[in-house]
User: What shape does this take?
Amino acid sequence: MNATMKLDPVADLALRVAAVRDSVALPDIESTVEELGECRRYDAERWYLGTGSSSRTIARDLIRTEEEREVCQGCPVRDRYLSLAVLTGDTDDSIHGGLLPVQQREVEAALYRQGNAVVLMLPSRVDHVAEQAA
Assistant: This one.
């Protein structure tokens, strides 16, 4: 790639997610973010935006979550946290890796465009899905 070419920020995040996926086992990603994530020092509800209500907009979410997203910017496991959300499809209603759900889905779409898409399930989620199906 030409040194003057800049990668699209979303495409760059997608490549970082793919790199985490290819280098770290999913259960290890989960335990690492639980142990080292900056957000562990706060109430988890701060990062939960709730299900899509008619009053939610991207602009409102950006304003309401400014402090939370700043915490994510300084987090040593930000890429892993974003990877965990994108790779498990948990991109609906919470901030992960400093990104709003709509931004996380953009990263997920970029993975597909790059041919890097693999959606994984943690063992705990597989058991939950099996229980619901029964």
Remarks:
- Residues 14 and 107 are 5 Å apart (CA to CA).
